[in-house]
Specification:
23% strand, globular, alpha+beta
């Protein structure tokens, strides 16, 4: 009698495992189908899904003053009454380089609306940064940060990292990584049009 019970328990266990395996395969199949359907959607939704999404935050912008590419000292407070996107980046950082055309295009579109981007290079020699700025036609302000003052001020050591400051000097959005133009339009443009 004990041998029959063991065989019965083994069959019951095997049937349970087969049921769980079957459910798992069905779920994998459904997930694959959803992924394939998602791949067939438009380019805009693909670029949004590949982009980082900003996080809503709410704290005063740090006091920050650095040297710009013209050798003059500038401070965040100088840009009060504008919406400011602070972008910490470096020439050696692939996602930093990848997002620069997107940031430049967004800047050109919204600069007349009281919007500015301040690109803050993270500790590289000025000659390298100036060459990079010229080669990539960056027309928004670029500051040098040889001691990583900006990254310390914003308490983030990742590149690229970005922070959007509203017209009252409050940091409202933050993200780390490459962002798309569509996501900038969705999240930053409403801050530009705010009164």
């Amino acid at each position: 009698m004990p041998k029959k019970n063991n065989r019965y328990r083994k069959n019951k266990t095997n049937n349970g495992l087969m049921f769980i395996l079957g459910i798992g395969l069905v779920l994998i199949g459904l997930a694959s189908l959803l992924i394939l359907q998602g791949a067939k959607t438009g380019q805009a939704s693909q670029s949004i899904s590949n982009s980082v999404i900003p996080v809503a935050v709410n704290y005063p912008a740090p006091e920050l003053s650095l040297q710009n590419v013209d050798g003059k000292s500038e401070a965040l407070i100088d840009y009060r009454d504008q919406v400011v996107l602070v972008n910490n980046w470096a020439t050696w950082c692939p996602p930093c380089k990848a997002e620069i055309p997107t940031l430049q295009a967004y800047y050109e579109t919204h600069t007349m609306d009281g919007f500015v981007i301040i690109g803050i290079d993270a500790g590289e020699p000025q000659s390298e940064v100036l060459k990079f700025v010229q080669e990539h036609n960056m027309t928004y302000p670029v500051w040098f940060d040889l001691k990583n003052t900006a990254m310390n001020a914003f308490k983030n050591q990742s590149l690229p990292s970005s922070f959007v400051i509203d017209r009252k000097g409050i940091v409202r959005l933050a993200w780390v990584g490459e962002i798309s133009g569509e996501v900038l339009e969705k999240y930053v443009t409403p801050l530009i049009t705010e009164n």
